[in-house]
Amino acid sequence: MVDKVAIVTGAAAGIGAACARRLAQDGIAVGVLDLDTARCADTVAAIAADGGRAIALGADIADRGQVRAALDQLCAAFGPVTIAVNNAGVTAFTPFAEITDEQWDFIYRVNVRGTFVVTQEVLPDMKAAAWGRIVNISSSSAQTGAVNMAHYSSSKGAVITLTRSLAQELGPLGITVNNIPPGSVMGTIMSEANRGKFNISDDTLKATIPVRRVGEPGDIANACAWLCLESSSYVTGQTIGVNGGRVVS
Q: Is 108 a catalytic residue?
């Protein structure tokens, strides 16, 4: 058994992998979850190489039975889960008039229902411990809107609102709930899509960001790790923008 155990979804690569590795550096045992266990091998190996503890888990986050089975594996390996990082998500670029019911439902199934299911399933352990940390990874496009991304942006807006509601409901139980809306981050679907769909060069993209660089997965992971610490216990219901100044509040 270890003091803290976390589940990180969409942790096979990119932001999710960086968050999993960063939490492991703080001595937290991590369930590295993606659609199947094979995808998680590299992240688990990297954590082990750094002296951390992790287990590969496979699940469709919108399937409650699969999520429950994955959490049972994690609990059996390391103990109750009191940290959840809801990072898994899907994106798409489609003009609003052309979005089909199926496309809309798929985006919401993963981004909203998946976040709902994982959070609801980890809640009993957090309640029992009277302590918990939930970090939702949303998107800066939820704050600004985005052309041809009404389904994606609105789904991430729902994640932000879910965060605010849960923070108020779960705060008295010792559980904090916050969200991080990244801007363009290297090695992620959104970063590549931004440049590919809009034909934006690296230099042009950087020029739109006040700090004049594209983000790294580690930038998001560092903020996530802080939100999971005991020292952040007075921070809940917040949107912690890690976007290089793309969105200024």
A: no
